[in-house]
């Protein structure tokens, strides 16, 4: 198996990749572990890989350009179609069953960010899987990626160690986040929603709330029972359910 990790902090991976079960697995030639600094693919002299979000708001959003370029470079040198995994709080909760599924792949590519979020086009047009190791927020995706890699590699034939059991946590926060977008406004024909370019902040906030409700309803409907919803929220959810049922 080949594992590549796209990160701004490749030094975080060095000790983990060389130690314990992962280190032994590499020595045996069972797995190849590689950390790639995607800042090298920024395409600008300043090495900028993030930008402010369209529509306003705090934090920075990871740009699509360097991530697409880094993944495509890895693909050009790979003989197998990889699973491209985005580590994020919104992803499918990682379980032992998922580890077993991933252990059958020949090539895994992990994407780790350190910002407010990812440009939505990375989610929509590049990744094959979105994973979370639990319902909480960390500084970046490196630690979760290490957890997943360790869990997967230990299942490969010839690697010593016992299987780990899945641990399920619950969210203590509210809805899943709405989609993020940043520059460029159009990337490979995929455009940022017009409302985020409108400058109408009240409409933007309404759109973001609806998108958050929609994403939570689609991915984690159980969370809606833990959130204090307004009358408007309930109307939006009712409409989304009717649309889903074709009513």
From TrEMBL:
It catalyses: guanosine(37) in tRNA + S-adenosyl-L-methionine = N(1)-methylguanosine(37) in tRNA + S-adenosyl-L-homocysteine + H(+). Its main location: cytoplasm. It holds the Pfam family tRNA_m1G_MT. S-adenosyl-L-methionine binds at residues 113, 133-138. NCBIfam families: PRK00026.1 (NF000648), trmD (TIGR00088). Specifically methylates guanosine-37 in various tRNAs. Belongs to the RNA methyltransferase TrmD family. Homodimer. This is tRNA (guanine-N(1)-)-methyltransferase.
